[in-house]
Structure to design on (255 residues):
């Protein structure tokens, strides 16, 4: 299990049981090691931020957690069950939802139709059964006025909101957000953060990869730092941001 920056054991943010546990997860693409002995746990209802330079292996880590790529070694437990060899769809059905760095909605479907597809597919229920829940999610994510708009004509912020809404439609207990604040204006970023905080406040555990640090640090209870596929720090955001390694490696500040 990864130690904190000061060598302390990982804190689960006082949230009790772990919803997700990685133990020694490793992955290589040919000669390139993208995940090396990654171990950490996320508490139920906790929000964990993941930072690291470009190419550090952050999105790859999400793909390992969701099962989109198989781990070479190590184990992944979700809600107490070993899911290391479980296919992505089954992980989604058991409560793992994710957004992708580049939103890819069904452009020729409306916003509401996009949600119906995600809700029905992500819960193996009929569209009529998920329709009310999808309408609620549109309200929660600030998209209700765009319900009948084609996804292809949305602004970047609205596409990010739709990406979030599609993940929520699968009714996640753990929500994985991949650079959802990237490319937004300051005001847009603030409004998206407010939405994410509200989702987290309802008890959904969040793992959020983000380069927009002020947005990330306003939500998460802990930060994990990846560098060349290795966890080089995990702990409270203020401790991580003050760490020499992180300042040198990630923020590019010479000490
Ligand atoms: N399917 C793949 N095959 C081979 N190499 C890959 C594959 N996917 C990612 N990589 C490489 O693995 C490394 C980690 O990529 P990854 O996208 O996980 O980084 P990241 O930390 O998310 O970067 P960014 O912040 O730029 O999104 C990179 O060198 C990338 O080129």
């Amino acid at each position: 299990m990864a130690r904190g920056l000061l060598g302390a054991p990982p804190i689960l943010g006082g949230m009790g049981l772990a919803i997700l546990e990685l133990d020694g997860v490793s992955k290589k693409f040919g000669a390139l090691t993208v995940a090396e002995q990654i171990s950490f746990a996320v508490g139920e209802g906790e929000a964990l931020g993941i930072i690291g330079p470009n190419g550090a292996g952050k999105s790859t880590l999400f793909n390992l957690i969701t099962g989109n790529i198989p781990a070479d070694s190590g184990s992944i437990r979700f809600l107490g069950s070993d899911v290391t060899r479980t296919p992505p769809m089954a992980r989604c059905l058991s409560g793992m939802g994710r957004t992708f760095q580049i939103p890819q909605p069904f452009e020729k479907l409306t916003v509401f139709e996009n949600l119906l597809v995600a809700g029905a597919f992500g819960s193996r229920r009929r569209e009529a059964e998920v329709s009310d829940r999808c309408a609620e999610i549109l309200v929660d994510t600030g998209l209700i006025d765009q319900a009948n708009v084609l996804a292809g004509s949305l602004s970047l912020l609205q596409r990010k909101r739709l990406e979030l809404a599609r993940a929520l439609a699968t009714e996640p207990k753990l929500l994985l957000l991949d650079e959802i604040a990237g490319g937004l204006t300051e005001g847009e970023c603030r409004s998206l953060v407010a939405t994410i905080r509200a989702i987290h406040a309802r008890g959904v555990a969040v793992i959020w990869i983000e380069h927009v640090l002020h947005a990330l640090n306003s939500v998460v209870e802990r930060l994990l730092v990846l560098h060349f596929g290795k966890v080089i720090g995990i702990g409270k955001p203020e401790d991580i941001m003050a760490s020499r390694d992180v300042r040198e490696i990630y923020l590019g500040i010479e000490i």
